[in-house]
Amino acid sequence: EAGVAQSPRYKIIEKRQSVAFWCNPISGHATLYWYQQILGQGPKLLIQFQNNGVVDDSQLPKDRFSAERLKGVDSTLKIQPAKLEDSAVYLCASSVHPVGTEAFFGQGTRLTVV
Amino acid sequence: TQLLEQSPQFLSIQEGENLTVYCNSSSVFSSLQWYRQEPGEGPVLLVTVVTGGEVKKLKRLTFQFGDARKDSSLHITAAQTGDTGLYLCAGSTGGGNKLTFGTGTQLKVEL
Please, what are the domains in chain A? Predict the structure, then answer.
């Protein structure tokens, strides 16, 4: 079974530029998550989708971050404009159901804003 | 916001020692999971506990869910260098609510 695919693996941009990350979840997984992880810390949930609807985006900085999940499959996360403090690993995960089932993670995209 | 505090934040031990990692919250969770993450990779699930007081064993790892379903612990017996990694607890609540991760415990096991 193919895992969660994310691209790119690494991205370096200057502050105030824009960037987009892509995620392809495991086939059949209804729930998709985007997390932001600072090195050595636990992942912070940015947005959770159930199919193509948003379940929770309470911690998404909506003035600069946006995400969509078209047709309930692939998802993109965009940052515009980027700030220095956005430097982090952005993890995408998917699960069959949102509660109590295993979340499968991609390898993440490491973003460096300079 | 549901906060999951893990302790200790960092742990460096010798191979063969035992250790316990704690995960505490003021919120009640319908289920709690433990993940391990290695550098450059996403977290990988170790176990899910759903019943208050539940104890699960996975080889040298023992997981316990608190009676009130607000806290959990992970105990490793006779740690090995391969246990090195970032250990994360994650709680979820009913009704399709979000999966919230703890603050993380960075474990380093040395020879």
Answer: 5-113 (2.60.40.10)
The residues in B 52-81 lying below 8 A from A, measured between CB atoms, are none
Residue of A nearest to B5 (CA): A42
Give the Cα separation of B80 and B68 in Å (integer).
32
Please indicate if any CB of chain A lies within 8 Å of the CB of B2: no
Contact A55 B102 (CB under 8 A): no
* CATH numbers and ranges of domains, chain B: 5-110 (2.60.40.10)
Q: Has residue A9 got a pLDDT over 70?
A: yes
Do A70 and A80 touch, CB atoms closer than 8 A? no
The reported pLDDT for the residue numbered B94 is 62
Does the distance separating the beta carbons of A42 and B102 come in below 8 Å? yes
Say whether residue B3 is in contact with chain A using an 8 A CB cutoff. no
Percent of chain B with pLDDT over 70: 95
pLDDT for residue A109 is more than 60: yes
C-beta separation of A21 from A90 below 8 A: yes
Q: Which two tokens stand for residue A49?
A: 């989708």
